[in-house]
Specification:
- The chain has 4 helices and 4 strands; from the N terminus they run H-H-E-H-E-H-E-E.
- A 4-stranded antiparallel sheet has the order 1-2-4-3.
- Strand 3 and strand 4 form a beta hairpin.
Length: 210
């Protein structure tokens, strides 16, 4: 449909200009509202962050005030920890001497017999010294291999091997040997240190002089 405006051209321009002004006003209003909302959001966020910061500062001050009290607990904890380490240091560790000697005595080796077994300071060095006699060198070597199969054995050393005397009524010679057996689980020796303070008395040279 063809529309024909009979209004003057100046009036038509005036109407179009008014509509544009209204659109600009509406857009400006929308922008102002959005800026206002953004401003309110920024202010609210800043207030919230400031409130949380003040709360954190108060908690930080309270925590600092607790430091002297907590230090006493830290000293108590350190004391308990050192005592626990001392208990662990002096507590026996596997293999135990009696169980190891039982396993050692259960080894069957024909032509070999033990004369002495020593486990002095077993807790600290886990060292067992075995002395005995046998008929030949290979018997000792076979016995050493069987000792190595015992659980917990780290090292077996043939410390000495000597021919002693002849067996009575035979031409066989009896051999004596010493074997050092080292097991795992050795502990570090500890020393008890006397930390008591020595009082020192200072005499005044002018005492008694008037």
């Amino acid at each position: 449909m063809l529309k024909v405006s009979l209004l003057p051209e100046s009036y038509r321009k005036k109407v179009v200009g008014s509509k544009r002004k209204e659109q600009i006003k509406k857009m400006s209003l929308v922008v102002l509202v959005m800026l206002f909302v953004f401003f309110v959001a920024v202010i609210s966020t800043r207030f919230y962050v400031s409130s949380k910061y003040d709360d954190i500062q108060r908690k930080n001050m309270d925590a600092k005030a607790m430091f002297p009290v907590l230090e006493s607990y830290q000293e108590l904890y350190n004391g308990i920890k050192s005592q626990r380490e001392l208990i662990n240091a002096i507590s026996p560790k596997k293999p135990y001497a009696h169980s190891f000697l039982v396993n050692l005595s259960n080894i069957e080796q024909p032509g070999l017999w033990l004369t002495k077994t020593s486990t002095d300071n077993w807790h600290y060095n886990k060292l067992c010294v075995v002395e005995g006699s046998c008929l030949e060198y290979n018997t000792v070597l076979s016995y050493i291999e069987k000792i190595k199969d015992i659980d917990g054995v780290l090292e077996v050393e043939l410390s000495s091997f000597t021919y002693t005397d002849e067996r009575a009524g035979t031409e066989d010679r009896i051999c004596s040997f010493t074997i050092a057996i080292t097991c795992e689980g050795a502990a570090t020796p500890y020393e008890v240190v006397d930390t008591s303070k020595t009082e020192t008395t200072t005499e005044d040279e002018n005492a008694g002089v008037s």
